[in-house]
Design brief:
With about 300 residues, the chain is an alpha/beta fold. The protein contains eight helices and eight strands, in the order H-E-H-E-E-H-E-E-E-E-H-E-H-H-H-H. Strands 1, 2, 3, 4, 5, 6, 7 and 8 form an eight-stranded mixed β-sheet that branches. Strand 1, helix 2 and strand 2 form a beta-alpha-beta unit. Helix 2 packs parallel to helix 7. The termini are far apart.
Length: about 300
């Protein structure tokens, strides 16, 4: 807006000064009104653009949400359909472990992959220490249990056998854990593999009692201790269920840990079995045709 005294005026009379001042004020008011009108128009336009932007954003967001929801719904349906497809291969599953181990978790895991799964459970000793210490002793214990079961003709040679052992381990001085070791053996398919469960913290006093109960001359000391953790718990805490002693001590059940490691060994066994299957006649023909094209 132009200034009131922005020009030189005629100083010869007061009237001329008032006349000039009035004209400057009128010009200033006109300019101010014009600016305000233009600014109001600009503000209205800005508000309209902002309103349109919000509406467009809501529309696009809703469309995006619908697309994502559709994809998620389709994905869930697809994975659900895939998950229901089980391998029709019949599995004669034989589980070998101590009585206090929940073998039903192993059966559920294999049945989740193989449609036709029949299972039997046997309590066969390994001949090693009452309480195994270290993963190597656990793997050896599983192998010896399976060998004993087969030598006693408890399981047929063509059967799939899963042995389960529990062992303790001092991972750092003064810190003990317990784990499960599972070993699956399938002689006809020449499959043998083992896995370990998630370590579970073992109260140190329990491990110390197991160790202290082992005499220096214990013949099986190389594989572990003479008194098992289960025996120590039964003597020290007679009210604790030995099949689920994890729950009162660490807050997670034995079955939960067994279920996870069982699912792992069942999946690995299935993967190994599928990968070793010989090619079908059509696959062999495809390979021959490719070889002929290269030559």
């Amino acid at each position: 807006m132009p200034g009131l005294f922005s020009k030189t005026f005629d100083k010869s009379g007061v009237w001329n000064w008032f006349h000039y001042a009035k004209s400057q004020i009128d010009a200033g008011l006109t300019s101010a009104n014009s600016y305000l009108e233009d600014n109001a128009t600009l503000q209205a336009t800005t508000n309209r653009i902002y309103s349109l932007g919000e509406e467009t954003h809501r529309t696009l967001a809703q469309a995006g949400h619908n697309v994502v929801s559709s994809v998620q719904s389709y994905g869930q349906h697809l994975f659900s359909a895939v998950g229901k497809a089980k391998d029709p291969t019949p599995i004669n599953l034989n589980i070998i472990s101590d009585k206090h181990i929940d073998t039903a978790a192993v059966t559920r895991a294999f049945h989740g992959i193989f449609q036709d799964t029949k299972s039997s459970t046997y309590d066969v000793v390994s001949g090693l220490a009452a309480q195994l210490v270290g993963p190597s002793a656990a793997v050896e214990g599983c192998k010896l249990r399976i060998q004993a079961a087969r030598s006693q003709k408890l399981v047929p040679d063509e059967a799939v056998v899963v042995a389960v052992e529990s062992f303790i381990n001092e991972i750092i001085p003064g810190t003990w854990v317990e784990q499960y070791c599972m070993l699956v053996s399938d002689v006809p398919k020449k499959i043998e593999l083992h896995v370990f469960s998630q370590p579970v913290n073992l109260p140190t006093p329990l491990a110390v009692k197991s160790k202290d109960a082992t005499p220096p001359q214990y013949a099986l000391r190389s594989s572990g201790y003479a008194k098992s953790i289960i025996e120590v718990i039964s003597e020290t805490f007679p009210d604790v269920n030995i099949k689920d002693w994890y729950t009162p001590f660490v807050g997670i059940s034995n079955t939960q840990v067994l279920s996870l490691v069982s699912a792992l060994i069942a999946a690995l066994y299935h993967q190994r079995m599928v990968n070793m299957d010989p090619p079908t006649e059509s696959e062999e023909l495809d390979v021959e045709e490719e070889d002929m094209e290269r030559s």
